[in-house]
Amino acid sequence: MIWRQDVECAAPADLKALQSEYLRKLIPYIYHNCPVYRQKLDAAKATPDKIKSIDDIKRLPFTTKEDMRDNYPFGLFCVGQDRINEIHVSSGTTGNPTLVGYTKDDLKLWGDVMARVLGCAGAVPGDTIQIAYGYGLFTGGLGFHYGALEMGLRIIPTSSGQTARQLKLMKDFNSKIIACTPSYVLYMAEEAKELGVDPAQGNWKIGIFGAEPWSEAMRREIEGIWNMLATDVYGLSEIIGPGVAQECHHKDGLHIFSDVFYPEVIDPKTGQEVPEGEDGELTITTLTKQGIPLLRYGTRDIVSIRYDKCRCGRTSPRISKIKGRTDDMIVVRGINVFPSQIEHVLVGIEGTQPHYQIIVDRQAHKLDEVEVLVEVEQRFFSDEIKRLNEIRDQIRREIENVLSIGVKVTLVEPKTIERSMGKSKRIIDKRAL
Amino acid sequence: MKITQISIFLENRKGRLYDVCSLLGANQVNIRALTIAETESFGVLRIVVDKSDLAIKLLRDNHFVANFTDVVAIEVPDKPGGLASILKVFSDNDVNIEYMYGFVEKFTDKALLVMRFEDADFAQQILAKHNIRVVAEKDIEGL
C-alpha cells in the first residue's frame, strides 16, 4: 500500500513547492539555533535571505561525518537537550561515536517514513511483523518498531539472535514480514534446515533487508530459499536510521522520501551534481528534522538516481542499490574507480567469488596502470590453459567495459591476497602522488 | 578405460612446485607421470599419482586449487614410429588431443603416454576398435 499518497505520488511541481517551503523555514531555524551551522552558512554566504527555493540548495555548504565527530556530543543540535526524547549512538571504530538525538516531532517523522517503508514493501495494517534487527542504540530495531506502530501492525520484537526462537515465533504467530539483515536471513535458513524445517514452507512472505550491502545474486538466493519477496531498505542513523528509502515490489530502485530527505548525487571530486543516472555520492538534506538537521550530508554511499514515475504509482525519485563507498574510491587517469564496480563484474561471471585486489602503479613518465588480481576458485579452475586464459580475458573485458580504462588481470592462487579482519585489502596504490 | 589426473593451479613463484611435491611425498603419495603447462604468470601442473583421492584432499586442505580430470593412458610401442602409428588412428578418425605427456616408467616393453582428449568417450571407442591397449587405474596403483 502507499502510506502517504499525498507526498509519495505528488506531481513533481507540487513536490518541489513543498521542498522549497521546507527549506525556506529550515535555514533560518538552523541559522538562529546552532552557532556551528551559523558560522558555516556565513562562510558560504548562504544566509537565510539568500535561500528562496529548493534550487538554492546548491549554495549550502556540505556536512560530513567529520563535522559530526568534531562537534560531539551537542555541537550540531538545534534544540536544548531538554527537548530531546531519544538518543542513538552508532559505533565508531575510531574516535568519537556518531550521536543522533530525536525530538518528539523527529520521532513522529521517523514513524511516518518507516510506515512508508513498510507500505512500500507490501505491508497493510493488521499484518504481523517480526523485527529481528537489534533493538538498542542501533537504530534498526526501534526504527521498524515505530513504523509498525504507526501503521498498526502486530509487532513481534524479537531483536536479533536466538535463531531457533525466531523460527518458532514465526510459526506460532504466523508472521508475514521479517525485517533483519540479509546475511541473517540466510543464516536462519541454514539453521532451519538443521532443525528439520523447510524454509520454503516458512510463513514469511515479505522480507525487508538492509544495514549491509547485498547483491542481486543474494536476493535471488533469499527469495528462492524462503519463497518470499526480498526488498532492500536504506537508511543511516545520521539522517534518521532506517526509513530514508525503500524498494517497492517492482524492485527497480529504492524510493527515497525526498519531501523530507532531499537527495543530490554529487561527484566527490568536483562537488557538483552528476547528470541523472550517473554514479556519485548520495548527499542528503533533512528538510524537516529538528534535533540535528543536516545540510547536504555526504553519506559516502555511491548511487545513481532517476526521477521517472515508477510502475507502482510513486513519483518519488529512486536511488540504485548502493554501488560502493566513497571511502574506497581511487582516481585513475581521471576516472573514478570503485572496488565495488570490479566486485560486481566478478560476481556476474559465473562461479567467481570476489576475492580480488586492485594494484595501481605509475612508472616514471607513464600512465597509471591498473592490475586486478583475482584468486582462482575451485569452481572455475580448468586443467586447460586456454580455458583459464578465456576466463581471465572475459574478466578483463568486462572490467574494461565498466571502468572505461585498460586493466591487466592476473589469476593468483587462493588465499594469497592479504586479508585484514576477514576482508581482503582491496586497493594497493603504489603511485607516488 | 579412463584414469584420473590431478590438475593444480600454480603461480609462477619460487618453491611452489616444491611445495606440492614435498606435500605429496611426506604423505606417501607417489607421482607416476607429470607435466607442467605454463603461461607468463601462472602454470598448471598435471600429475597422475597412485592415491588420487588422498592427494586431492591433501592439496585442497592446503589451499591449492586442484581438480580431477579424466585422461587415458595408452600403451605405445617403444620403437621408431610407435607414437606415429597411434596418432594416425586418431588423425584418421578426427579425434582431437588437447595435450599429452609420458609416464616416468613403464611396466611392459611399451611406453606409456597420458592423453587428454576433447571427447574422451569417443576416443576410447576408437582405441577399442583398433585394439590399442589402455591402462586401467589399478595398473597405475600397482606400478
Could you give a quick summary of the protein structure above?
The complex is a heterodimer of chains A (433) and B (143). With 433 residues, chain A is of the alpha/beta class.
Q: At the fourth CATH level, what is the homologous superfamily of the largest domain in chain A?
A: ANL, N-terminal domain
Q: What integer is the average pLDDT of chain B? A: 90
What is the CA-based Rg of chain A, rounded?
23 Å
Strand content of chain A: 15-25%
Characterize the largest beta sheet of chain A: strand count, sense, and whether it forms a barrel: 9 strands, mixed
Helix content of chain A: 25-40%
Helix/strand order of chain B: EHEEHEHEEHEH
The first-level CATH class name of the largest domain in chain B: Alpha Beta
- Report how far the terminal alpha carbons of chain B are from each other: 17 Å
Count of alpha/pi helices of chain A = 11
CATH fold call of the largest domain in chain B: Alpha-Beta Plaits
Radius of gyration of chain B: 16 Å
Spatial separation of the terminal alpha carbons of chain A: 53 Å
DSSP helical segment count of chain B: 5
At the first level of CATH, the class of the largest domain in chain A is: Alpha Beta
Average pLDDT number of chain A: 90
Which structural class do you get from the secondary structure elements of chain B? alpha+beta
How many β-strand stretches of chain A? Answer: 23
Low-confidence stretches of chain B: none
Specify which chain pair forms the largest interface.
A-B, 17 and 22 residues
Biggest sheet: strand arrangement of chain A: 4-3-5-6-7-8-9-14-13
